[in-house]
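S1.2 Input.
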Amino acid sequence: IVRRAGDVIPEVVGIARPGLRRPQDRFLMPEQCPVCGSAVRRAEDEAVTRCTGGLFCPAQRKQALRHFASRRALDIEGMGEKLIDQLVEEGIVRSPADLFRLGIAKLAALERMGEKSAQNLVAALERSRKPSLARMIYALGIRNVGEATAKDLAAHFGTLDALMAADEAQLLEVRDVGPIVASSIRQFFAEPHNLEVIEQLQAPHMLEVQQTAPVRAAADSKILGKTFVLTGSLPAMTREEAAALIEAHGGKVAGSVSKRTDYVIAGADAGSKLSKAQELNIPVLDEAGLKKLLNL
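S1.3 Output.
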């Protein structure tokens, strides 16, 4: 039954069934996903109700796999959208763990996939078997957990098991993690289907996540809470290594220069980011200057 609500917005108020003189039934939101059986949740500030079985749910399978294989997640080169669609539609891949069971023969038999392409993809899958903890957390596709938050979680907890065991109070100790993010993380790890997929990924001959001891920035760190932008090629370290160093000392790394940027670290062939920093009178350091700032 639909009635007018306000000026023009329709509102569903009930279900009319044959044999009933008056509509007495109202729609009840299911407590479990009708596709996979996982629990469903609705945030207090949202109108939508969502399935929590992100890694497991068939209705979310394609998008979850695309995210898992994306460049900023496990970075599986050659694992494109069309290939994922084909693997899912033919029932070959049902979860991220199935990707690492793919062999050359099975891949080469797919439409538009020759033996050479299959070999390249298997090689790419092998290269992605040792992701950093931050990449692994991001790849899981936890709602409200972006790349920056995944790095903060990795630095704070050090291992995936420690993150999975953390309660909301412990999660709230992480920089920039508020009640909404903490709740999303707990809901994700409270779903047995997600834990089952993670267990599969941690099985022998699957993924070897590069877990490290938790990093705690010293309270007297010169860069605690400061925002950095990296540009150009540094002489002795990659930008990813420089970013990890900054974050270990309590700094943040952003992708673009703004008035909120505290320092720009510039190497060879620095481009528009350097020009923007000079325009805004933001301090610019080279690799040696960064190390001096960090007392290295």
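S1.4 Remarks. The chain has a mean pLDDT of 87.
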